Amino acid sequence: MRPASFHPVTLTTPAWRRAVLSAVIVALLAAGGAYAGPPPPPPPSQGAAPPPVHRAPPPPVYSPNPPPPVYTPGPPPDPAAPPPLPIAMRVIYAPFYVAGLILRYGVYYVLVAPLEVLGRTLDYGVEGGVEPDPNSASR
Questions:
Q1: Residue 116: which domain range?
Q2: Contact 25, 17 (CB under 8 A)
Q3: What is the mean pLDDT of the chain?
Q4: Is the pLDDT of residue 87 over 90?
Q5: Residue 1 has pLDDT above 60, yes or no
Q6: Cβ atoms 50, 44 nearer than 8 A
Q7: Residue 24 lies in a domain
Q8: Any domain includes 94
């Protein structure tokens, strides 16, 4: 007969599972590592293998060079081109050249440019259309 306080350990109790898991871990640790043996021998050959044939490597493949660029000389100088003016003519022509420059640029900078600035000032105002920065100190 069994005593009344004895209960058999069933497979569902946590103690039984813990005991099985501990036994498996101890067995794996005690087993150690598995080491591989030597490789298997090569299969039997059907006679002696032919010696390797040593051939020269194929020549490298080169792309042909592009043709050289063709340089054509410029047109020959015009034989009918007038020669430069002699010094005396340059001296006579110089005052007229200066007068033309003064008329051209003087008229622009004395009359046209001030009128353009005045027109822009009237269109955009003295500030030039840019709003003052509110964070800067006022003047």
A1: 86-129
A2: no
A3: 81
A4: yes
A5: no
A6: no
A7: no
A8: yes
pLDDT at 7 over 70: no
Ordered alpha helix ranges (H), 59-110? 87-107
HEC string for the chain: CCCCCCCCCCCCCHHHHHHHHHHHHHHHHHHCCCCCCCCCCCCCCCCCCCCCCCCCCCCCCCCCCCCCCCCCCCCCCCCCCCCCCCHHHHHHHHHHHHHHHHHHHHHHHHHHHHHHHHHHHHHHCCCCCCCCCCCCCCC
Two structure tokens written together for 114: 């001030």
Token pair of 76 as six digits: 């020959």
> For 21-54, what is each residue's pLDDT tens digit?
888 888 877 777 667 778 888 777 666 666 777 8
Q: Within the chain, how many helices (H) and strands (E) appear? A: 3, 0
> pTM to 2 decimals?
0.31
Domain count, the chain: 1
Residue 121 lies in a domain: yes
Say if residue 133's pLDDT is above 90.
no
Give me the count of residues in the chain.
Answer: 139
| Residue 139 C-alpha from the chain's centroid | 48
